[in-house]
Amino acid sequence: MPELRKDPVIGRWVIIATERALRPDQFNTPVSGKSPDGACPFCEGNESKTPPEIYAIRKNNSPANGPGWELRVVPSIAPFLRVEGELDRRGKGMYDLMNGVGAHEMIVETNQHIANMADLSEDQIVKVLNCYADRINDLERDSRFKYALIFKNYGKSAGGSALNHARSQLIATPVNPKRVKEELTGSRAYYEYHERCVFCDLIKQEIEQKSRVIVDLDGFIAVAPFAARFPFETWILPKKHCCDFTCTDPESRVFLARVLKTVLSKLKKGLNDPPYNYVIHTAPFRRKKAGYWKSIDQDYHWHIEIMPRLTKVAGFEWGTGFYICPLPPEDTAKFLREVEL
Amino acid sequence: MGELRRDPIVGRWVIVDTDNPNAPADFNYDQYVPKGGLCPFCYGNEFMTPPEINCFRDPNTHANTPGWTVRVVANKFPALQIEGSLERRGIGIYDMSNGVGAHEVLIETPYHAKDLPDLLPEEVENYFKMCCARCQDLAKDERFKYLMLFRNYASAAGATLEHPHTQIVALPMVPKNALEELHGAKEYFNYRERCIFCDIIRQELQEKDRLVLENKYFLSFCPFVSRFPFEIMIIPKKHSGNFSLMSAEEIKALAEIMQGTLRKLKKVFENISYNYIIHSSPINSELEGEYYHWHIELMPKLTQVAGFEWGTGFYLDSTSPELAAQYLKAV
After folding, report:
1. Do A320 and B92 touch (CB under 8 A)?
2. For strand A220-223 and strand A213-217, is the pairing parallel, antiparallel, or unpaired?
3. Which residues are within 8 A (CB) of A113 and not within 5 positions of it... i.e. 6 or more apart?
4. Domains of chain A, first to last
C-alpha cells in the first residue's frame, strides 16, 4: 500500500510509492566534467571574461581581477534582477507589479576546473561557506532587500550551465519568497502550540528512529526527510538551534563542510554523479522595525536541502504541489549510509 | 529593467525578463523523437492493460477488444490504490495515512501518433465528454475530495508512454496548490463580492495584449504572471466551478479552443513537450464554493526548473506573456 505523508513544517502531502519502488540503479545520468571548448571564464587566468569581482580570497595581495585567487564572487552575466534603481511598486488594473531590483551573484568556488563540489577539499568548502555568510551579511545592509537565497544548480537537468565549473549562486530579493514564508508560518504555528521548534523535534525523532539518518557527526545531521518529494532528497540540519545560517560560529563551519562533502560524495559515488540542486533555507533579514517577527529566533531553524534531479517533475506535481516519490526515504537513507567513501 | 509581478490569486511573485526577452529560437529544449515499439494502448493490445472502466466503442464489438474510440483503464502502476480506508495516523511528530485513491488512464484515441490537434473535432469532443463522465462517476465516492486531470505529452514533460493519454487521479485530500488557489479566490470574493477569475477575464478581454484565442464560451491567454515562458490559460467565460458540468455546446467550444491553441504552440515550437492540468473545484467537501472558477493550465516544457525556483517558489519568466502571446497570435 502506498503511503501519504505530510511535511510537518509546511503541510505538503507526498505520495510515497512503496510497491513500484525504483531501484537506485534505474536513475542514471552522469554529469560530464568537461567544458565545451576549454576556455572556461571561471578558471584562473580568465578573469577578464567575467564582470569585475565583488569579493575574493586572494593570496599574497594579488591585484583584483587577475590570477592569484582561491575563491571569487562576480555579478551574474545574465542577472535575473538588477541592483540599480527603485522598486516603484504599482498596480495595473487588478494586477500588482514592481521593478526587478535585486542582486544576482556567482560564487566561483575554486580556481581549478572542478565541476562537483564533492571533489573540493574540506578546507576549500569552509571558504565557500564563510563566503556565503559574508555575502549575505553585506547584502543585508541594503534596505531594499528582504531575503538572500544561496543555491546551486549542478548539471543540465538541474538547470546548471554546460561550463561545469563549481559555482554557487546568490540572489537577494526585494520581497520574501513564497516558499520561505510558508516554512516560517508553519514553524511559527508549531512553536505557538508546542513552545518548541519543529526542526529540533524532527532532529530528535530522526536520531531516535535512525532509519532515515544518512550521516550524524560533529553537531550536524543529514537525513532523508519523512515526506521526501524526490528520491534521495537529503536535508542537512545543525543540531544546535539557530535560525540564521550567518550566525553559525566559524568553527562549526568546519564540521558542516565535512558533512556536506560526505553527503555530496556519497551521492556522486552511489548514484554515478547525478545532477542536483541545493538550497540554503535561512531566516530573512531581521531588521528592528514595525512588523518584526519577534519569535523567529526561537521558531525557525536554518538547514540545507539537497535535491538530486533523477526524475522528471510532470504535470501532476506542478498542478497539485503534491509529489510522488518513487522510493521511500528509509530505503534511500539506507543506500546512502552504505555507500563507502 | 525586469519586472516583478505578483499573482493576484496565490500571491506568488514572478520575475519577468523584459530587458533581454527570449525569442522562440533562443530556447534549447528537448525535442520529442518518437521511439516506437510495442504499445499497450494500441488496437489489438487491449489485453496488456487492466480491464476497461469506461469506453466509447462500436456497439458490435466486445469490451477489451479493438473497436473503441476513447478508452479508460486503471493505471497499471497506480500512485494510489482504490481499496481500503485512509487510517490517518501519527508517528511522533509526523502525520500520514494510507495511499487511498484512484489512478486512471484515459486513452484519447486509437491512433498512436496523433496528438489532440491532429484529431477530428468530434474526436476531441468525445475525449472531453469522457473526461467529464469519469469525473462525475469518481465524485460519487465520498472518500475522494479532489479530482486531478492532467496530461503529460511527450517524454520531456514526463510521459512514459508515447501513445497520447490523460491521467485522472482521485485524491483523499485537497492538494496544497489547489488550497492556495481556493483560499486566494475566497479572500477576493469576500472583499469584493466578485469572482477573481471573472475579473481577470474581463481585464484580459479589454487589454487584449495577452490574448491568444477566443470563441463564444472560452478564451486562451498568457497569464500576466506566467511562471514559465509561453504558459497559457484556457478558461470558460461563464462562471462555473466544476469542469465536469459543462454543456454539450461548451464541450464543443472547449475542443475547438484546445485544438487551436495547441496547434499554435506546436507551430512556434516544433516537437515540443507540454503538460496541461485541469483546475476544478474540490468535491465532497465544504470547500466547494461559488467563488471558484475552473480553468486549464497549459505549460510547454521549454526550461529547467532550478535551485532558485525550488528554494523560493519564485519563478523567472524569460519571455514576457505579452511577447509570448504576440508570437502565438502571429502563426
Report:
1. no
2. antiparallel
3. A35, A40, A42, A43, A164, A165
4. 3-338 (3.30.428.10)
Please state the pTM of the whole predicted model.
0.87
**The pLDDT of residue B307 is above 50:** yes
Residue partners of A238: CB distance under 8 A and separation at least 6: A219, A220, A248, A252, A256, A301, A302, A303
Nearest-CA distance A62 → chain B (Å): 33
**What's the Cα-to-Cα distance from A22 to each of A27, A232, A311, B49, B196, rounded to whole Å?**
8, 12, 11, 21, 42
B81 DSSP assignment: B
- Helix, strand, coil shares, percent, chain B, to 5: 30, 25, 45
Structural domains of chain B, with CATH: 3-330 (3.30.428.10)
Return the C-alpha cell found at A321: 504541489
Task: Decide if B190 touches A, using CB distance below 8 A.
Answer: no
CA distance readout (Å), B166 to A113, B41, B257:
45, 12, 18
Cell of residue A277, nine digits: 540542486
Crossing angle (nearest 10°) for helices A250-270 and A122-140: 120
pLDDT tens-digit map of B193-210: 889 999 999 999 999 999
Please give the residue of chain B at the shortest CA–CA distance from A152. Answer: B307
B180 interfaces chain A, CB cutoff of 8 Å: yes
Interface ipTM above 0.85: no
**Residues, chain A, total?**
341
Q: Which residue of A has its CA nearest to B84?
A: A1
**For B178-320, where are the E strands, in sequence order?**
211-214, 218-221, 232-236, 274-279, 295-300, 315-317
Nearest CA in chain A to B227: A318
**DSSP single-letter state for residue A341:** -
Phi, psi (deg, nearest 5) at residue B128: -65, -35
pLDDT greater than 70 at residue B272 = yes
